[in-house]
Specification:
Length: about 240
């Protein structure tokens, strides 16, 4: 998708920020640049943002706290974390807190643009319509909404993507690679951590006991299955 994405860049290094803003604008996106967390929250609270590009090291609010705050709100932008913290543990923590993608500094402009395009393309509405029902869960594909026992559950775009992919193939195993290719894009099939953390987030939101999932089960070393019939609940011990 070229053009049409509303992107908010949160980066306190002004040289880096301007570089990102200009490159993304040249690619046809509408870009706003802010240098601190408070300004970012102000924009996110008042304007539509499709994609948030978030530096974790900010002068006022820790980027991880900002990310958690954003995920509690109605507005649910895609979040690409761009960080100097390059350890696996940092990446996992950001994904758990609700990031959709993670790029460690230093990175190439080409890599960043490829990820932005992939994220915005994948977030475009899916052509499939209809309502899927699994037990007490109801997924309205067109509206992108999940209702559990009559209560709407807020899902991020990538959570919805993974859930939709599993539901479309319910009762059958989907491998990590298949899920990654379908939801993140063909260039992301090695990013198993992405699937694992999104599955954890989905279980926390949709399962009664996330540690003993009855719907979203694991086939160890292979992938995940959305069960057509829930596995029996664990007996109380
Ligand atoms: Ca910084």
């Amino acid at each position: 998708m070229t053009g049409g994405g509303a992107i908010l860049v949160v980066e306190d290094d002004s040289g880096m920020g301007r570089f990102l803003r200009d490159a993304l604008s040249d690619s046809g996106h509408r870009v706003q640049l802010v240098g601190d967390g408070r300004s970012a929250l102000r924009v996110l609270g008042t304007e539509r943002v499709d994609l948030l590009i978030l530096d974790l090291g900010l002068p006022d609010i820790d980027g991880m706290d900002l990310l958690r705050t954003v995920r509690e709100w109605e507005s649910n932008p895609l979040v690409l974390v761009v960080s100097a913290r390059g350890q696996d543990a940092d990446k996992v923590a950001a994904l758990r807190a609700g990031a959709d993608d993670y790029l460690a500094k230093p990175f190439s402009l080409q890599e960043l643009l490829a990820r932005v395009e992939a994220r915005l393309r994948r977030a475009a509405p899916t052509p499939s319509q209809g309502v899927l029902v699994s037990g007490d869960l109801r997924l309205d594909v067109a509206a992108g909404q999940v209702v559990r026992r009559g209560v709407p559950v807020r899902l991020t775009p990538m959570e919805l993507g993974v859930l939709h992919e599993l539901w479309r193939h319910r009762g059958r195993v989907r491998t990590h690679r298949e899920i990654l290719a379908a939801v993140w894009g063909p260039a992301f099939t090695a990013e198993h951590t992405y699937v694992r953390t999104i599955v954890q987030r989905l279980r926390a939101k949709l399962e009664d006991d996330p540690a003993h999932p009855r719907w979203l089960t694991t086939l160890p070393g292979v992938g995940y299955i959305w069960q057509e019939v829930p596995v029996p609940a664990q007996p109380p011990r």
